[in-house]
Amino acid sequence: MDKKRLSNALKSKIVLIFALVCMLCFSCFALVACGNDNSNSGTTTDPTYTYPEDADDSLIKNGGFKYGTADVKAENFPKTSITGWTRSTDNSAETSQVNSGVVSVKASDWKVLAKTLYKDTEYKAYLNEKGLIDADKSDDENIDSIVENFLKNPSDKDGDGYVYMLNNYISSKKIGWGTAQKLASSSAVSLSAGKIGKFSVWLKTQNITGAFENEYGANIRLVNSFNGNSQSEFRLNAIRADEWTEYVIYVKADSLYSSSITLNVGLGYGDGAKDKFTYCTEGTVYFDNITFEELDEVPEGVVLDATNTAVMDYGNKEVKKFNLVTLSGKTYCYDMTFDPMDYSGLTILNDEAHMRFTESTVKEGENFRTSKDIAADSNVTKTAIANGFAFDLTKASYTVKIDNGGSNFVLAPGQLAVVKFTIKNELSSFGARDVFADVADIFGSEVKMRKTAATFSYSDGKAVEYTIIVKNEFKSGDREFYLNLVLGPNDISKVNYAYELATGKIELSNVKSYIIDEPDNDNNNVYNFAKSAASATVSLYAGYSAAPTEDNSTVSYSIETAPSKIGEIINRPTDAKAFTGVVPDHSYVKESTNSAVNTRSGNGDAEGNLAGVINTKYLANYTFFDTDKLAWTTEDDDIQPIMIYNKTANHYGFIGDVKSVAANALASVSVTLRVTGGAKAYVYLVDTNGYDKDVLDFTDFTVNYACTGAPIGTEINGKDLKFALVIDESMMKSDGWVTVKFFVAAGKTALNFRTEVWNGARTEGDDTASSGYVFVKDVTVTSSSAFTEASRMEDTFSVSGNPLFDEGVTAFEKEGSVIYAYTRELNENEIKYNKEYPDTAVSYSAKYVWAKNSTCVYGIFNTLDVTENNPYDDIDNSDSGSGCTATTDPSAFWLSFSSILLGVVLIAAFVALIVKNVRRKRKANASDAKSHYTVKSRISASKNRPVKVTKAEEPKDEEEPEVPAEETKEETASEENKTLDEYVYGDVQDFGSEEKPEDKE
């Protein structure tokens, strides 16, 4: 075959391969396009809208429940996790067994939602119990009937097609009882002083029933704080509305103090009592279009009178509620204005008889330095205004001395003075802008100036009320003081330039003082408010060289004294920082009107009981108790414990600050204490999630793993498993102290708890009362990285680092100890996954979930209250299919198949071409070798025997048909050899003809 024929054949093959490449590219393009095109589904879908979360500028985020729903398919409603809201069971109520969440009320989606709920075993059992399922009808027929007669489409209020559905349904054995759930907004709105807040909530109830009382239904709650202090909850209770109804709550802020308010909505209310469903509710409530706005005044036409208004009672935690079973109104008010004191008992200090005005001075040698020594044009102009004075300063520092009409304020032991005043600070930014409060602490002839007790900054022309509390903490001896307000620099000795002085205007008004005895039940709320609102609290301790907190000692203590109790610890028990002393009949422990705290610190109570922080450095001063009970010697390191002394058998305890443990996080609590004198100490972790502060208990479960705790099938009541320990004198270690520990692993529900230590139980009763001493020298709460949970039951006691390793397994084999193991059960997704993917099946090993002995409690919620796992989330997207391959469209399958087939053909063509080229080259090489040998022989032979040689003619190109494109390696070997030989010998003949032998006849 000649060159032209070869060239044409090669071109044909290239064209063929190029066509195959084009077809493959086209198929891939079509495949990708199909994966993103649903237009061939044969149905018309509603348009979808994207609601980016950052577009929500509402004060209550996602009040219309539309954000995060754009990509949710109908079968995935209800959407349980949503932006801006958190759903939870309410105050120890049972968990609803039907999902709640955002739902689409589009007609096409509602039927799908009904099918989704119908698949829920508990919900279906409930429907069957209600007689809503006809066994003779198909599932589709039953679903249609349920949608028409029971699960009716509620529509929505704001037109976006989404509402929140809150379902309260529990097991069929408690049909009609229901449970309690709440939906808490993550948006705590701030209501400025003097403003009006308006909350608007649209809701609709469906299929509502209750267990025992009449106060069942939906509710709207305001969890609020006043000037940073939590107040009683405001609640609209027992709401039942068959149609969409708007409920409005106006909140009046105090003229001087701001408020922070968080909105909760719910269905039913859990009271936390065991097996009690008094306020629980069964049924469904829908919420939509929840809003908040801040107003200057109540809108015209809105009537707010005593019948629909609740007034905040500062410090009283009793719920302020309206029962809408008996009330028909839709508009209510929470009045948070507060007059903290009886002004008839105040001493008004607005006149010059109680205020002295002088330039700020500092003694330098025999002379006094003032602002005029720094700036010659320094000047202050004082003008009387309503209830006070205005000061116009030019490069000055000016002092206003406030006293009791020319004499010092005098405080008897245990008394305190509340000094209040209003400052309007408009000092220029070109100079000093602060006002300072200095307290002169006087004892006899000694005056100790407590500089810069508080600082009041530029207020942008706004009048702000401030409070200073001054206390006499000592057991005996009066204390005296006066107050200086310094306008401008507080220390002239450090001022070198005129621009460092103050220029501008300041108004000082409404100056008043109020002296009260040590707080008791009658004025406790007044004191607590003053304390919370105070810019500074100063304890008078003149006569002593230093307060304990100013000691040069580097010793630090786990238990600290309250900042407001400087000096008191020297002579008597004082208040603890972050701990509050209470009796069992207290509003912090149960529903009660008693709000007095730390009633046994200082001099103790009338019965001789004492409680508070003491320090071994001052034992010589403590004549109020038997210091030998502490078993401390001068060789020991100083300690600063809380002491609880019950002279007779009774109950008293200290409650700590609230600690939070996030979902699936860990926490450990360690308490070191000493018990003596026949006392019994009670140590608790108390659940603070709800209003009723009960001891934290565990979760109900059925034992499914045999261990020493109980046989398989044993039903465990979680309320019988308490995070509580009782410690007596016999349990002290060799050093006279014992450390008790709690380990907690939260489940999908976050935990809020506080630590309590009592002498005598936290509930009243003769059998739990205690007399004697309890000392607490350390309370440590660690969260997040508190401990490492054992990954297997076998490792709990054997692997170092696990929390119970130090305890040892024998510690839980003693009488009175208990230990339970449990194997986490598979959820529906995991069961389904295991059937489909047996090689990577999900499984869980048994773990200890509860262990308790005399000094340790170990509770692992996250094995029972689990965060649901969806194993399908771990499957690669390519395995789960997308686009066309994720549908059942036959054309998609064949398109994919043809693409693969074309790819295979293309690869085969390339391989064939390569193989053929290799074979051609091998044949060519072999023929070249043969032809060279022949030429050499012919030349040699010509020398011996002349031969007439005729010059070979150049072969003419002949028109031959092109080799078909389909010609492949199936051609016979003989044909290939012939072609190659012709090509080689043509060249050889040319080569050979160049020899010029003689012609011989």
Quick overview:
By secondary structure, this protein is an alpha+beta fold. Helix content is 16%, strand content 31%.
Average pLDDT, all residues: 81
Number of strands: 45
Low-confidence stretches: 35-51, 545-554, 877-888, 933-944, 949-1001
- Biggest sheet character: 8 strands, mixed
User: How are the strands of the largest sheet arranged?
Assistant: 31-32-42-35-40-45-44-43
Proportion in helices: 10-25%
Q: What is the end-to-end distance? A: 37 Å
- Coarse structural class: alpha+beta
In one word, what is the shape?
A: globular
Query: What's the number of domains?
Result: 4
Beta-strand fraction estimate:
25-35%
Q: Rounded to an integer, what's the Rg over CA atoms? A: 44 Å
- Compute the number of helices: 9
What are the salient characteristics of this protein?
single chain; 1001 residues; alpha+beta; Jelly Rolls; 4 domains; seven-stranded mixed β-sheet; 45 strands; disordered C terminus
